[in-house]
Fold each of these.
Amino acid sequence: MTGAQQHRPHREAGNLPRIPVRPSRFVLAALVVFIAIAGAAVFECIAGHFGAFDGTVAALVVAALLGVAASRWRRRQPAAIALHADGLTVWGRAGGARYFSIIGCAQWGGRLLALTLSSGKNRPRTLLVAADAVDSDTFRQLAVRARRAASAYL
């Protein structure tokens, strides 16, 4: 029975402390600025060819669609995480937990950490963790563990 001897970190997640993930003001500001720039770009393109009214309508439609997409993305962000040596457990807003191994990471200064996560079954997914979404000690630990796990995966 080798299956009973396998290391299953997602089974041990109940013993690990859940670290709450707050909505990031930094990422929210970046989303708002992106939507505004995209709307202005669409306005400039359409207004030059078809007039200001059509440009305004197109810009508002694009801004609304991007706003809906940003809202859906924010709702899919985890409510809490737990750190492991080579991965993390992610709790969704509904309360379901899933274990992911870290297969890649990128860090932009001390502000943003992009993790590439794999569950082994599905395609890899990306999780953005801003420094203001978790406390500073957790962000530092997550960055160190992510670099170690990503280098071990390669």
Amino acid sequence: MSKNKSKVKVPQKTYPTGPDFKGKFRPGEALVKVKEIVDSKLEGASYTQDKLSLWNTEICNDIRHELKGLAKDRYKYVVQAWCGENKNQGIRVGSRCLWDKTSDDVCYYSFKNDSIVFLVAIYALYLY
């Protein structure tokens, strides 16, 4: 005679291996907020050396605060900004990082008026 033993299923511990579709960072969503912040701070402003550090700090902090409001769980945001005087010169900025192309993303915005050039790069990195 064989005894029929029922096996008890023990749930395995799980953790997210990536964001779900709704929880994924969307650069278009972020770009709208970044554009609002940068344009409101720098529209009509003129270049002065003394204000550059203040503008960079304020704009980066405001962008980080707004991005947290997007409620994208498990994302870390890195915000970089470059500001300079506009004398019709070119600017080239490069960066390099390791990332997962299925969950990480980047968003760029550039602002330019008669006296200021301002560039912002936002890196959204999913924390596993």
